[in-house]
User: Fold these one by one.
Assistant:
Number 1:
Amino acid sequence: MSLDLSKSLTPVCRVLAGAGLLFGSAAVMAESAVEPAQRWGVNMTPGVTEISRGIYDLHMLIFWICVVIGILVFGVMFYSMYKFRHSKGAKPATFHENTTVEVIWTVVPALILIGMGIPASSMLMDMYDDAEDAEVSVLITGYQWKWKYEYMDEGVSFFSNMRTSRGEINNIEPKGEHYLLEVDNPLVIPTDTKVRFLITANDVIHAWWVPAFAVKQDAIPGFINTAWTVVEEEGVYRGQCAELCGRDHGFMPIVVNAMEKSEYNSWLGARQAEAAELAQLIKQEKTFDELMDVGKDVYNKQCVVCHGANGEGGVGKAIAGSPVATGPMDQHLSVMVNGVPGTAMQAFGAQLNEIELAAVVTYARNQWGNNMGDSVQPVDVYNFKQAN
Amino acid sequence: MGDHGPAKGLSRWLFTTNHKDIGTLYLWFSFAMFLVGGIFALVIRAELFEPGLQIVQPEFFNQMTTMHGLVMVFGAVMPAFVGLANWLVPMMIGAPDMALPRMNNWSFWILPFAFFMMLSSLFVEGGAPNFGWTFYAPLSTTYAPPSVTFFIFAVHIMGASSIMGSINIIATIMNLRAPGMTYMKMPLFVWTWFITAYLLIAVMPVLAGVVTMMLMDIHFGTSFFSAAGGGDPVLFQHIFWFFGHPEVYIMILPAFGIVSQIIPTFSRKPLFGYDSMVYATASIAFLSFIVWAHHMFTVGMPLAGELFFMWATMLIAVPTGVKVFNWVTTMFRGSISFETPMLFSIAFVILFTIGGFSGLMLAIAPADFQYHDTYFVVAHFHYVLVPGAIFGIMAAVYYWLPKWCGNMYDETLGKTHFWLSFVGLNVTFFPMHFVGLAGMPRRIPDYALQFADFNQIASVGAFLFGASQVFFMFIVIKTIMGGKKATDQVWESAEGLEWTIPSPAPYHTFTTPPEVK
Ligand SMILES: [Cu+2]
């Protein structure tokens, strides 16, 4: 029953929204849900899922009810201020209570609220669904300050980092169109398919939010929250972490690439093949120079924010001259693979592959005056991970 | 005894047990904190003037948002209300002073130490608290800067100060009313503070509890909020908001009381629905205890929890609506003039109601999934706190300042201050509704390009608003220094015991209780 109510309300809201003078740009926003985003946007996006449209309609309904109440209340106020001005010699009345009107203005608002609460409750029931029947399940983990996506049954997983450069942020380079809302590896999902998100975090609380899907769910360490969506239109959808999670909270965007099922499948196939290839590569021996090259890349992408461009430290300790980077290999590997619990130094074992780990360790041991002269092979990292 | 004056010099202020002196101390302290918190806000707005990082780095930006919130809530708004209560409650109920004058001195004088400690953490290694004024664990525990311990200690002191202040207010109201001043004859400001004081006593210990649990997690190896040790980060939020939601009513109920004094005076008509105003305040206070999780709709509560907290929250709109309707009806068929306190009070009613509307929208749980943690929320709570709490306080200052210092403020200056503040505030906070709905998360030091225009406007408004408060300070000081002498009655149709005593109010008033008919 409650379901029907929300459906029957929808067209009403549409009409209201369509008539929106204040919120005239609502229609524009419908397209901007894809891209590029509009400037001067003043309203929520109706989005590209049934739920997001339902929420949008509900939002507009409540908004217009508030507008009407506001016009009535403020109307009486402004009328009084104009009509009963002391400067115009208004004589004050003396009435100061009336139980009937008190009852009326208690009961009538209560009824209006019930009118709002019913469609809201039914909407909520539609949203609450453990999505056991979803065809695709993605485990989303929030890290300081990136997201990890793991396709539960497909053996594919990767990290998604912001791609906007520090130069753009620091106003040295021109800002691109998707400034702060672009990532290296977007989440890819099929359209017209129920997708389940299992959301958690590795360190502090984050929140995974994509406005166009109306999915916002806190990512809490030690808990797994569920959300789901069925995206109806292909496109690139952008969102951000919505819960303050430390320094780079503003810099952990979310990009979702929704594509047709067949395209999605071939994307997934390619990813799986890559993973298999990687497994092969790990077994190969790397030269010292190869490791140093890859290590430099990894360092500049993953480590530089905390450890500084010259290993001088910052949020993290200095790498130059560090007792770890110039100490026993096992201890160095352990810091890299397991992190230093309770500090910003994360467990990179889950974030970097064996080649990257071997490379960055080798790099750290032979840069900025660290002169160990040794190196470590991907397969050693693999063995270390297995053993620890 | 009765007629001796204040002690001379600094010791007057250090050792005073006089409710008027202590009220003054609270008010100046709160104004100082208002300026400090305002500077933090301007750092935020300056950084957000344009996309990109220009002025501060994200670490410091987070310290600014955190300190702005903490200083404004605990340093500016709450002490200002306690200061007003100190000045006004005894004078309104015909009492010679507060019931517990020595404790009164103590509850004020520990505050500067608390804030000194908290603010000094801006200069220590690792920086000030940077986890938001809501200090969610584990960001505020395992991942916090070392200064979090100072913050915890400061919160304990502030809490002790608030609890002592509340006990004092309750004791005064219950015991020191003049003969004939029955509960249902008390001015509404007294009523709203009476209820607020109970809220404070109920929730401040909860806040103390939650920060103590944090302290244990950080230093003594417990795992209340750490999932790795079997704890629960969501527990933190439940406890925090069990304090935090009543806290927002603590910051608004006394302002309700203030405008309920002012609107009748300048409408020259008694307050409409006194009884229902009292009952509405009490209902709001009660409901404020059962709605806390509406701040947590996205943490993954079960459906039943979402429904309960949504309906309970919507219910608060009923008594709040009653209050607004009563104010409007008080004005209806009155004889209205627009002195500065009245302008602030009218703006209070209108803008607070707008904040109430966005609050109602936020209460709608499904929609809150889109609103939560965006600038829409920032717009909402600034609409209830700035034109709500802050305008209430300013209205009170203009209204009672002539009684306090014996001089009338300059009406033209007062009105100018009002209009500057009014425009500044709306230019600052209204666009935040737009960027919030369009998808801008709160607490970010930098934003995507499509939010640039409205952010720029908001920043301009913020500087206007900030500058007008310096102007406010000038007006108040000018009034204290001199000006047209105020009559005892001050306002033509003001009613209440405080208007029966001379202006400025003598150091000791009502040493023999007045008779209230
Ligand atoms: Cu985050």
Number 2:
Amino acid sequence: MQNNGYLEMKLLRFTTAGSVDDGKSTLIGRLLYDSKSIFEDQLEAVEEASRSRGNEEVNLALLTDGLRAEREQGITIDVAYRYFATPKRKFIIADTPGHIQYTRNMVTGASTADLAVILVDARHGIMEQTVRHSCIASLLRIPKVVVAVNKMDLVDFDSKVFDDISAAYTAMINKNGLEFKDVIFIPMCAKDGDNVVSRSELMPWYSGPSLLEHLEQVEIPGGDADSMRFPVQYVIRPISRQFPDFRGYGGRIAQGIIRVGDSIEVLPSGSKSTVTGIWLGEKQKEQAVAGESVCITIKDDIDISRGDVIASDSGVKPSMSNDFVLDVCWLRTSPLVCGKRYTIRHATQEVAGIVKEIEYKLDIDKQEKVYDIEQLTANDIARVHLKTAAPLVFDAYRDNRTMGSLIFIDGTNDTVGAGMIVESYD
Amino acid sequence: MSLNQLTHLNELEAESVFILREVAAQFEKPCILFSGGKDSIVLTYLAYKAFYPAKIPFPLVHIDTGHNFPETLVYRDELVKRLGADLVVGSVQKSIDEGKVVEEKGFNASRNKLQTVTLLDTLAGHKFDCACGGARRDEEKARAKERIFSHRDEFGQWNPKNQRPELWNIFNAKKDPGEHFRVFPISNWTEMDVWQYIYQEKIELPSLYYTHMRKCFYRDGQWLAADPDFIPRRPEEVVEEREVRCRTIGDVTCTGLTLSHAHSLEEIIDEIASTRVTERGGRADDKRSETAMEDRKKQGYF
Ligand SMILES: Nc1nc2c(ncn2[C@@H]2O[C@H](COP(=O)(O)OP(=O)(O)O)[C@@H](O)[C@H]2O)c(=O)[nH]1
Ligand SMILES: [Mg+2]
């Protein structure tokens, strides 16, 4: 088999962001097309659909804008997931909408991303949505950011336009205190593929990598390896002749490494024990690392159920509290009301919660904080004080996404808000 | 040792196992939709791994159009026996006999659309509140948009314009009585991932996936099975014996056959790496209109 090496590839999840019409869907179409991930029948369907809409050129955005309403209106409404692979890496892309009323869908796409490609139209420079999406990318701690200055063909591939936008973007990062450790800028023409897969000859003044080269090489940092976190998802008890007394804990390792023989502490109870086995399917393993789903067994017969967290007895311990400073992105038009009861889901736990107070909300347009707020509505980003009916075992979101993220569910069962724990409130 | 060292297959597997355990934890009566296709086989295999050494804590449901390749049924029954799983069969023929649906007529008649009614009846009859399916987002553009936990109203309908936000790996399975969910644990897998995983894990497949001689005929750019003989043929459509295999298996009437020499998984993976059409390119049901899948899903399809 020629593709044997391909079994050993790593996965990179990234998302696109930026204002409407900056070229997000076109860029993804271009990446898929140039990496030969588009099949003939898909291309024929897109050609046919472009023609029937009177477009002169093939509209690659139609590859991701799959819903009827999106195709009719020529915009992206909901997140679309697309997949492609090169011999070096495998990619999952979340193509997200640029319209302000669909910001929540951008948040959805960003929540699992390792990297964000933020597009800027070279003619228009930084827009309100560019700032909004950059704030969200920072808030959601997307580890890596690429700013793609797109439509360079419409500004004669002028290096000054690119330099000015790069400088303005850097100023915007500093002004807003965005937490980007690693930002790179790439001048691009998504429509024709310049600097998308291969480096463009039309911009000899640019010496950096093409977008794809960067995506193939970029390293995504792992979490704290010494402080293991294992939120218990499901208790596995076969009660069969072969396994009469088996009691295992199913879950996905949120951080660190588990090894057979490790000392562990179960929270919130504080009971301690030792790992005796790590299973997945019929196979037993000596160790498992962050990201793996396994079933673990422990030495002592202690009460552990869904919602508990098993942590290593060394390193940094998770925190416990029922009072939090929380960054919130509100997702629905029904407002966040202080004092209203919500269901909070955090890792594998579920508790009731109330927002006691809104500390401030971000005015993205003016790039400043607004105080004395009573309610939040769709797409608002704010810092609040949350109180829960029972303590949560957590880490700050900045240290671990799984242990620091939560969602708000209201009485209609809908997911209405996304929260990121800053610290416990005291 | 460095973290973040999982291969893409291990990471996809871990994500799917996590989702299946969330299903077991959050629903009262979930099931797995088992079509006999490779995706539902991989899904079932993942469920086996997720709960081992316990049995899969929910039954397999097969919506049977009556137009099966016999190999699919043999495989299904052996698998159920091996896993010690429960099997529920919903019969489209029965829905037809009871007058709940009317069979399509003509040369392109298919029971694919009728399945929706049988599926919804079966879910309601057994009070299933969640049906896990093996659909993948790379298969089709409407599927590319669907959530992993996809909420359905009392009529089983999907509302693409107002899906619940789905953030991080936090899944919200809350619903009102009578509503249910479709959950797609292998949403993020591609066709290639599925084949590589089958290879890596040495998963046994129905023989239909490997090349074999079969009586078939050519229509609208694709080969269709004349054996078993479920599709009415036009006079000019001649039956020939060809070396073919299935890339995806559904009901006989909508399963395109690929001319192939691939006898092994290695050969299949090489063949897929070089192929230039999607697997659904061979599915007659998708070609009916540009948004055929979205329209069927809104009505309650898988
Ligand atoms: N001239 C030019 N037009 C582009 C470029 N990239 C995208 N476009 C066009 O910009 C419009 C909006 O693109 P689309 O991908 O739908 O933007 P989105 O809203 O960010 O997804 C379409 O008409 C594209 O053809 C580019 O690099 N150059
Ligand atoms: Mg778009």
